[in-house]
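Need tokens for this chain, all 379 residues.
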Amino acid sequence: MLDFDIYALPTPCYVTDERLLVKNLEVLKSVQDRTGCKILLAQKAFSMYSTYPLIGKYLSGTTASGLYEAKLGREEMPDGETHVYCPAYSEKDFPEILAVADHIVFNSFSQYEKFYPAVKACGREIEIGIRINPEYSEIETDIYNPCFKNSRLGTVLDLFPEKLPEGISGLHFHTMCEQGADVLERTVKVVEEKFGKYLYGLKWLNFGGGHHITRENYDVEKLVEIVDRVQKKYGVQVYIEPGEAVALNAGYLVTEVLDTLKNGMDIAIVDTSAACHMPDVLEMPYRPNIIGSGMPGEKAYTYRLGGPTCLAGDIIGDYSFDEPLKAGDRLVFCDMAIYSMVKNNTFNGMPLPAIVLHTANGENKIIKQFGYENFKCRL
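Here are the structure tokens for all 379 residues:
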């Protein structure tokens, strides 16, 4: 149940609940404190940088997928480490990356060979790693599987030299998506079987993301055991870079019903677009929960919720409610802090949702609102 007035907010808007964010951060910090591992914010899932000062009190830094995320992490969480991994770096961006990064992970040895001289000459101490592809993953949806057949992500064992080249101090793998410690345990076993000989003498090993550590039934004890064992066996510093786990179930998307109609079933048009404001609904597909709703047919009135764009497939899903919907009603989608603000777009001239922080003291603080210029300036 929400304890703030959703009718006092602009719509559509993303609301991040600071109390729920802290709850997640406390779980993650407990893992750091118990194991000595370092947990980083993966900005690809959550980049609400107004919360970075808070996150920085609990985590060890940020990880980025390119120059702009790296700059954001360095600027907004300056006391934390800044890690960068990109499938391929451009010569144009790399000098700026050298100025902000503490760790740079290369996707291939050819990228390492191309850019390592610049790393050596830059005058900063930067840790260098290679992303490995252990050719093992339990993700069933290919679009989110870094190890599916012919993946471009990471270097397979067959392409590894007998000895790691100069300057490489760590390895990185990312094979998981919204999964538990049992999957990590099986993944680490494969990594050790294939790449174990390279781990001795390295400084660090990055377990990547996809760890649902703050999920209610996540086995934190097993995670602690895995991290402890790997760090002791190989003498490495373990890094973990969850994105979802930081803000999992810590945010909402508030929308307003604009109109209702019938075409074989009841339909409601809302001011939120699946295509623009919650694209995972179409990509996954993914069905976000709405507070007070049920599955189709579960409650008395079932509606198909659609967005206001001209895209025929801009459908959020079918939901049932205790009462008929009408124009002006507010609906609240759950778990909308992650992969929403970072993925949204202005297709069809759709306004971007406002960004709101519900603070620990009960205030709804509007962080940012967007208008026509935000649409125009991207074109």
